[in-house]
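Workshop exercise sheet. Pairs work together: one partner reads the sequence aloud, the other fills in the structure field after running the prediction. Swap roles for the next sheet.
Pair: D.N. / O.F.
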Amino acid sequence: MTVKSSISLTDEQHAFARALVEAGRYASLSAVLQRGVDLLRQRTDAEELDVAALRELLSRRREGAFVSGECMDARLAEMIRNKRRAHGLPP
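Structure field:
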């Protein structure tokens, strides 16, 4: 089912949408706007998933063991040494 809506576009938005129709990329201005809303919904859904994943990651990290700054520095230095060694670079 479709619903008719009245919308307002800036001159620039209207010109862009009209150019897409005239180029044959979309059948009508409505098709352009429907695609835009679909893309916005997909982007919003993806952002919500990203936020949920980050919240889960942060929750797990808060529950995990604390790593001191010195310990993390040592871990990073070891990782860098291993990568340099793997690529044949001097330490």
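Discussion prompt: The first helix runs from residue 11 to 22. What would you look at next?
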